[in-house]
Amino acid sequence: MKSMQAILLTQPGSLQNLKRETVATPKPGVGEVLVEIYASALNHRDVWIVQGLYPNIRTPVILGSDGAGVIREVGEGVDPACMGRAVIINPSLHWGSNPRVQSHQYRILGLPDNGTQAEFVVVPIENVVDKPEYLSFEEAAAIPLGGLTGYRALFTQGHLQAGETVLLTGIGGGVATLMLKMALAAGARVLVTSGSDEKIKKAVNLGALGGANYKEEGWGEKLMALAEPAGIDLIVDSAGGDGFFELTRIVNPGGRIVFFGATAGNPSRLDQRRMFWKQITLQGTTMGTPQDFHEMVRLFEVHKIKPFIDRIFSFNEFREAYLRMWKGEQFGKIVLKHREK
């Protein structure tokens, strides 16, 4: 049986439980393809799994939701002409037929299914899209999970339009920096928050209008001043916590708040009277549909968007890469380079 190198999580709790191991190379089944991974990227999801903070963890498992590479083998029912295609992988598996919400069979590549932090991965043929030619494999690998999540939050759920002002909380993370790029390409004005002044400066250098440090008093007032005279039309939040109360105050009447995370926990209070009087839309979102993924890649291609890569590590430096995300030091995506082109 053929074997491959993979980064295997033997059990949650410690980075020392992430190990480079020799494992069996998977075989594509009906409707599946085997992709040789040239580059993968990290998401907070990977770190939370390692920390044991993610539900239904099953080990051993190969983590990784983001990846780009080349199709090397096809399963039954897949056109052999697909072999040799350079592709980007959609990690959103088995969404289902309802575009509003995922099915009960839905799951994300990288747990429970083995993911992209290996030499090869098997995915359904419908979960690969041709890699945009202008992107390197490292750039393409930085897009999938964050790009899909951000696209659905901004456009499918948030209905962002050119000329509107959008506030992105927690700039610096992979999803937020990808949303910054997409929102600017769509003609929106972008404001940001962060607990780091340096990350806010980097966002402004990339085109953001301005931002506020949520650790400082009056951060909401500062954002409202920056948004004058039009105000804030849309807020996309991934933190939750008590800062969410302030978001409902600073968003425009008739505005929208889209959220996909609660890293700061649940809000301790919400003012329903404020929300119904202002007629605010609160909209949850998770990952995205196959159509969302195709539209996201199309947006990147049309505007020749390049993701902001924080740092590229070699495949052997996987622990250093995880530690950087664990400490929250990154601005943009952390990428693992598996091999040369």
Structural descriptors:
341 residues; alpha/beta; Quinone Oxidoreductase, Chain A, domain 1; Rossmann fold; 2 domains; seven-stranded mixed β-sheet; six-stranded parallel β-sheet; 18 strands; 28% strand; globular
Please tell me how large the radius of gyration is: 20 Å
The CATH homologous superfamily name of the largest domain equals Medium-chain alcohol dehydrogenases, catalytic domain
Average predicted confidence as pLDDT: 96
Strand fraction equals 25-35%
Uncertain stretches: none
Distance between the termini: 25 Å
Q: Architecture of the largest domain in CATH?
A: Alpha-Beta Complex
What is this entry, summarized?
With 341 residues, the protein is an alpha/beta fold.
Describe the structure.
The chain is of the alpha/beta class and 341 residues long. The protein folds into two domains: 3-143 and 307-337, Quinone Oxidoreductase, Chain A, domain 1, CATH 3.90.180.10; 148-284, NAD(P)-binding Rossmann-like Domain (Rossmann fold), CATH 3.40.50. It is built from ten helices and 18 strands. The strands form four sheets. Strands 3, 5, 6, 9, 10, 17 and 18 form a seven-stranded mixed β-sheet that branches. It has a six-stranded parallel β-sheet with strand order 13-12-11-14-15-16, sandwiched between helices. Strands 2-1-4 form a three-stranded antiparallel β-sheet, with no helix packed on it. Helix 3 (144-157) crosses helix 9 and helix 6 (219-227) packs parallel to helix 7 (243-250). The protein is globular, with a radius of gyration of 20 Å. It starts with a strand and ends with a strand. The model has no long low-confidence stretch (mean pLDDT 96).
